[in-house]
Amino acid sequence: MHYRSREVEQVRPDIAHDCDVLVIGGGIVGLSTAYAITRAAPGTRVTVLEKEPGPARHQTGRNSGVIHSGIYYRPGSLKARYAVRGAAEMVKFCAEYGIAHAVTGKLIVATGREELPRLHALVQRGRENGIPVRELGAAQIAEYEPEVRGLAAIHVGTTGICDFTGVARQLARASGAEIRYGARVVQVDRRPERGVAVRTARGDVVRGRVLVNCAGLYCDEVARLTGDEPDVRIVPFRGEYYELARPELVRGLVYPVPDPAFPFLGVHLTRGIAGDVHIGPNAVPALAREGYGWGTVRPRELAGTLTWPGSWRIARRHWRYGAGELRRSVSRKAFAEAVRRLLPAVGEEDLVPTAAGVRAQAVLRDGTLVDDFLIREGARAVHVLNAPSPAATASLPIGREVARRALSVLASA
Q1: pTM exceeds 0.90
Q2: Residue 234's closest CA among 60, 385, 57?
Q3: Would you say residue 10 has pLDDT above 60?
């Protein structure tokens, strides 16, 4: 990162800091970081600033609720290591605090012959990542999902589901941190020799020794407010979901074989904790960072996406894939056709629109989608710059890693 000075409100040496570590963002990663800091260094004063009136209002609370096994991710990557470790820890955390969860397992199903080599590659990747998998023939799929059809599949036993919003609330309670809701950060003044001062939209000023940026959809903007150039841009992708009107058609979790060129897993079927079945998400460009529908347009944010060179390079490189996603976004018929590849009994009338989510995807200037979790440090700051799925699954290990870095910066301050 490149440091540049920014005058906002001076961190005055004669004024005491309000906290030792100031965390921006009250999603599951920010709250896990606060929890990890107070566990690792009792007595450390932590303040969390969250712009919404409560925790987990965006990526954390709008995903499919799946505890991912880690089978998809490159061996040795942060995603692979933290997802495998995090899945086991998340189940244990939920059990300890009485948070709704279940270890259900899931099927990854190949519906075309061209997908069979990719399915076999997933088996190998799963084994490299230490994940138990069972290979299934077409007839064996019905043992798990009688209504699902495919040429072959693999069963991943460590996948589960949980209430991630409930996890975030418990992390907030157990962290002992001061959590301020309705505190949108608008200005940051960082002085490497003194600390950071943050001004919120309400006019409050909070001073800390170290800043931790877990702002999700706005993490790149917060990095720039701090004076660090992240060299990535968050490009928001909306994931649209339907609820299945006949949930009895699906017993558990059913996924297609993903395209390795993209970080998206494709439209899948997820039976949730409450017994409802969600279908989705697709992946279409959002017209705002919190653009949960086509009607939400924020010109400044859209301009930021359109002026980033990487956005146009993605569009040129993957326009065919994007066209298919857009078609499924505007046509329920097209969405149903995609679902019927896995679940032939589904009709358009079975798809009931439900809440969408937005993925905060970091994109490099050359159009590369950042594939792994990305954590960078600046003077008196730690920035989490890419933490989309499986970040909720991996939130406990991610929180420990960010906490380790923050405490290291604090010790050297």
Answers
A1: yes
A2: 385
A3: no
